[in-house]
Amino acid sequence: MSASVVLLERPAKGVALLRINRPEARNALNLEVRKLIARHLTELAEDEATRCVVLAGNEKSFAAGADIKEMAGAGTIEMMQRGVDKLWRAICGCPKPVIAAVNGFALGGGCELAMTCDIIIAGESAKFGQPEVKIGIIPGGGATQRLTRVAGKYQAMKYILTGELFGALEALTMGLVSEVVPDAEVESRAVAIATQIADLPPLAIWLAKESVLNGMEAPLGSGLAYETKLVQILFSSQDQKEGMAAFIEKRKPKFQGK
Questions:
Q1: Is the same domain home to 15 and 130?
Q2: 108 is catalytic
Q3: What pLDDT is attached to residue 1?
Q4: H-type helices in the chain, by residue range?
Q5: Mean pLDDT across the stretch 183-211?
Q6: Is residue 2 pLDDT above 70, yes or no?
Q7: Looking at the structure, do residues 84 and 25 belong to the same domain, yes or no?
Q8: Is 80 exceeded by the pLDDT of residue 31?
Q9: Catalytic residue among 25, 63, 132, 156
Q10: Which pLDDT tens digit goes with each residue over 206-229?
């Protein structure tokens, strides 16, 4: 296993924590890091013991963007052959909930990486931004689409066209992050939420995520119809029977993901 992305020991039952570990480069996303994140998330998606994933950096940087040194001299054909777009799809395609624990810088590709996650916990000192225009390119990991859908055209245009950074509280106001907590509590809070999710019926959690994400790409009527079908499907699960029986009997349910 490479030292660039480390799959840590599980901080809690059902929870896996992936940490980007390139402190010498402020956790810049080189091709190796992207491949490893995609590989680990693909493997965790198939791991029955994993019900939720936390993605973290260190106290100074979640990920300070793409590795500029790695791409500065590349041409169009080389960029196409690298297939970074396929890696982004693998990362955002994880069916299990992924929580970003953001301390320090989440810039460029780092901000886009956070936006592929389902929940973002940010430290008070965290800084977000899409500064790609300052080096002659535009965001390539989804920011022109995801940031616009989250914050609206005018906020997204401001930051994408100027490359200015913005803080955690502004990100919270825009709806870009789920919570802002003291810097020292970011990872523990992310793990706490992941643990809470991991204790719930996994089929319901996975289908809830699927419904939200698919609904974002569909007209309201289609999204509502899809949601209804998923609810109906869950009535064939053992966890639905157990959950409702436990509620009626006033006891703690025992969910098995079946």
A1: yes
A2: no
A3: 45
A4: 31-46, 68-71, 76-82, 84-92, 109-115, 143-151, 153-162, 168-174, 186-198, 202-216, 220-234, 238-249
A5: 96
A6: no
A7: yes
A8: yes
A9: 132
A10: 999 999 999 998 999 999 999 999
**Catalytic residue, candidates 66, 106, 168, 171:** 66
Task: Give the pTM.
Answer: 0.92
Concerning whether 151 is annotated as a catalytic residue, the answer is no
3-state secondary structure 193-224: HHHHHHCCCHHHHHHHHHHHHHHHCCCHHHHH
Catalytically annotated residue among 16, 57, 106, 112:
112
Tell me the β-bridge partners of 243. Answer: none
pLDDT confidence of residue 92: 86
66 in catalytic set = yes
- Whether residues 183 and 208 fall in one domain: no
| Residue for token pair 């119809």 | 225
Q: Which of 14, 65, 104, 109 is catalytic?
A: 109
- Report how many domains make up the chain: 2
Cβ(102)–Cβ(178) under 8 Å? Answer: no
- Domain span at residue 34 reads 5-198
Give mean pLDDT, residues 140-144: 92
- Does the annotation mark 112 as catalytic? yes
76 in any annotated domain: yes
